């Protein structure tokens, strides 16, 4: 048994947990448990990043998705009325199934038809410095544009949330 | 990351100097043990066991040690806290069980194990049972990259400090699961306050760390320690230290930021409904985070396991951690709890601008002196930090008032003029 086999075992365990918990997100009636399953899916995706030797991305996945996004989701659950009574039924089931199936079909076609390039290089040890270098040297303009966009979204959210009177 | 240098594995020949074997064994205790086990299993020899087996055995043993540092340290930190709080409040504190009350942790553990484990009838049972685990496990994970001595961290992660921040953030889900599944409004209030508090204080926490990361040029905790060759980072980063230690005490939900537990209003918040071993698990998580963060503070700002004398690194680290723990307990005993809006205003209006100022100042210093910061920057940095803190407080309108306590017939307390006596009122009150 070498690193490759161990990585494969880890990959399959985490992939199965990720897919099962992602399914559980849509079939669970209790919306709070659905949010918890979504957090589990996020964390297993972080595990998948570790099997790819992408340690920085894995930590950021836990920090951003496991920490921030999950808190956002849970706040949304809290502020939803009558959430204890479960997920109310509505007429969106059929369009949602249709759109979901369409999206899944698109993904499957794209994944099976594209030619995936395999790199023969061994994974880099210590990705943090390379990522930082790429963000503020090579790709500084897209990075700054994304930052300004996020800042604008944040200010917009604050303006909307404040209302007119204050 | 998974196979990044296992610090306690077989060391290459010539790694240990072997001058004075006894002293060297004491100083390099953890790498020596790892090396001995590795060689004892026949590692790196022909026909020996494969590397992954050695890795597994050593990793398991190392995890056992580290988990037990957390799990066995917690009862004694609780005892230390109760003792010190007693002294601060002019009491003796626990002293009935064993000499000086030293066996109190054993008695507490036995009591918790024999207590009835109650689950509320209206609770979401599965989530209620899983919440203490979801809270405690990520916090135990934060001990992995802490360097206890030279070459003695369980996992020498390149993303060390980012890992610590990430796993402690993941513990918030546990708090929320506990608060929601208890089906109790006080638990839910506690959990909501916890989340609001943590979202607010995560930002100054991470931003104040960045100064240290800028100085060391790495996220690896072992390298951050080695980078503090000439002076601990607290001297280069006084402002960062100030913001970090306040943000950490908010992150740890300790007084004066313990608004989410607030015994007097929320009946201890998100773990109101917990009892027995589940409550013990929540308590373990809280105090393990306290121990872990004091190790992180010592590592980042007080030069970790390094010390001026020839004392083993782990003793230095534990000594520094003990000082920080006592400081946290002192603060808890001294400062009254803040209101939730005060906590929010303090985090966003006071700590966040200070941490941003710190980043820019540190970046300017690192650009000006790329090789090593000169020593004359230390007094300048300390003066700058003091000026920033005072200036920001004045900007926010903080005016310290000397309150005069007036009791008729007695000298006025807190008054400058000596011997001023308020006359006793005749008639009326």
Termini separation of chain B: 75 Å
Order of helices and strands of chain A: HHHHHH
Examine the secondary-structure arrangement and name the CATH architecture of the largest domain in chain A.
Up-down Bundle
Structural class of chain A: mainly alpha
The secondary structure category of chain B is mainly alpha
Helix content of chain A: over 70%
Helix count of chain A equals: 6
Radius of gyration of chain B: 25 Å
Strand proportion of chain B: under 5%
> What characterizes the major β-sheet of chain B?
none
What's the total number of strands of chain A?
0
Percentage of residues in DSSP E strands of chain A: under 5%
The tally of helices of chain B reads 16
Give the beta-strand count of chain B: 0
Explain this structure.
The complex is a heterodimer of chains A (166) and B (429). With 166 residues, chain A is mainly alpha-helical. Chain A has helices at residues 3-27, 31-51, 55-78, 93-113, 128-138, 140-162. Chain A folds into two domains: 1-84, Up-down Bundle (Four Helix Bundle (Hemerythrin (Met), subunit A)), CATH 1.20.120.1200; 126-166. Chain A is built from six helices and no strands. The mean pLDDT of chain A is 84. Chain B has a domain at 107-395. Chain B is mainly alpha-helical and 429 residues long. Chain B has helices at 21-27, 29-40, 51-88, 104-114, 125-141, 160-170, 172-181, 185-216, 221-227, 233-236, 238-251, 263-266, 276-301, 313-334, 340-368, 377-395. The interface between A and B is medium-sized, with 33 and 31 residues.
SSE inventory with pairings:
The complex is a heterodimer of chains A (166) and B (429).
Chain A (H helix, E strand, L loop, with lengths): L2 H25 L3 H21 L3 H24 L14 H21 L14 H11 L1 H23 L4
Helix pairs in contact in A: 1-2, 2-3
Chain B lengths: L20 H7 L1 H12 L10 H38 L15 H11 L10 H17 L18 H11 L1 H10 L3 H32 L4 H7 L5 H4 L1 H14 L11 H4 L9 H26 L11 H22 L5 H29 L8 H19 L34
Helix pairs in contact in B: 3-4, 3-13, 3-14, 4-13, 5-6, 5-7, 5-13, 7-8, 8-11, 8-15, 11-15, 13-14, 15-16
């Amino acid at each position: 048994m070498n690193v490759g086999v161990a990585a494969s075992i880890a990959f399959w365990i985490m992939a199965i947990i990720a897919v099962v918990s992602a399914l559980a997100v849509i079939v669970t009636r209790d919306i709070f448990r659905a949010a918890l399953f979504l957090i589990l899916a996020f964390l297993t995706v972080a595990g998948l990043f570790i099997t790819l030797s992408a340690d920085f991305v894995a930590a950021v996945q836990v920090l951003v998705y496991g920490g921030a996004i999950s808190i956002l989701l849970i706040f949304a659950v809290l502020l939803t009325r009558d959430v204890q009574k479960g997920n109310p039924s509505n007429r969106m089931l059929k369009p949602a199934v249709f759109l979901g199936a369409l999206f899944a079909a698109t993904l499957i076609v794209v994944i099976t038809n594209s030619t995936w390039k395999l790199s023969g290089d061994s994974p880099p040890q210590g990705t943090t410095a390379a990522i930082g270098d790429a963000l503020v040297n090579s790709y500084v303009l897209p990075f700054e544009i994304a930052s300004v966009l996020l800042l604008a979204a944040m200010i917009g959210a604050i303006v909307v949330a404040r209302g007119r009177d204050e | 990351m998974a196979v990044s240098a296992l610090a306690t594995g077989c060391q290459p020949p010539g790694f240990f100097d072997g001058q004075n074997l006894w002293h060297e064994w004491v100083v390099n205790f953890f790498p020596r043990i790892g090396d001995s086990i590795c060689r004892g299993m026949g590692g790196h020899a022909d026909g020996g066991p494969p590397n992954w087996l050695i890795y597994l055995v050593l990793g398991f043993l190392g995890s056992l040690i580290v988990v037990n540092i957390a799990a066995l340290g917690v009862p004694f930190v609780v005892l230390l806290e109760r003792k010190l709080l007693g002294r601060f409040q002019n009491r003796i504190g626990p002293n009935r069980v064993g000499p000086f009350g030293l066996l109190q942790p054993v008695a507490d553990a036995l009591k918790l194990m024999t207590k009835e484990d109650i689950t509320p009838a209206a609770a979401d049972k599965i989530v209620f049972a899983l919440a203490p685990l979801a809270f405690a496990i990520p916090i135990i994970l934060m001990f992995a990259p802490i360097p206890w001595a030279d070459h003695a961290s369980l996992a020498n992660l390149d993303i060390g400090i980012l890992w610590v921040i990430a796993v402690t953030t993941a513990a918030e889900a546990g708090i929320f699961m506990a608060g929601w599944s208890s089906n109790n409004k006080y638990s839910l209030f506690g959990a909501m306050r916890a989340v609001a508090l943590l979202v607010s204080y995560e930002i100054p926490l991470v931003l104040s760390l960045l100064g240290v990361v800028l100085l060391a040029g790495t996220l690896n905790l072992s390298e951050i320690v080695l980078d503090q060759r000439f002076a601990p980072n607290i001297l280069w980063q006084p402002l960062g230290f100030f913001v970090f230690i306040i943000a950490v005490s908010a992150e740890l939900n300790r007084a004066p930021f313990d608004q989410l537990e607030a015994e007097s209003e929320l009946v201890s918040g998100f773990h109101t409904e917990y009892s027995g071993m589940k409550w013990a698990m929540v308590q373990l998580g809280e105090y393990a985070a306290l121990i872990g963060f004091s190790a992180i503070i010592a590592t980042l700002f007080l030069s970790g396991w390094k010390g001026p004398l020839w004392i083993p690194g782990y003793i230095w680290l534990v000594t520094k951690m003990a000082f920080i723990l006592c400081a946290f307990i002192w603060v808890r005993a001294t400062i009254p709890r803040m209101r939730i809006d005060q906590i929010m205003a303090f985090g966003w209006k006071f700590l966040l601008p200070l941490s941003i100022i710190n980043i820019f100042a540190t970046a300017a210093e690192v650009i000006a002196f790329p090789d090593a910061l000169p020593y004359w920057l230390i007094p300048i940095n300390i003066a700058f930090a003091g000026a920033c803190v005072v200036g920001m407080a004045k900007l926010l309108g903080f005016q310290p008032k000397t309150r005069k306590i007036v009791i008729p017939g007695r000298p006025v307390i807190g008054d400058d003029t000596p011997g001023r006596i308020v006359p006793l009122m005749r008639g009326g009150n």
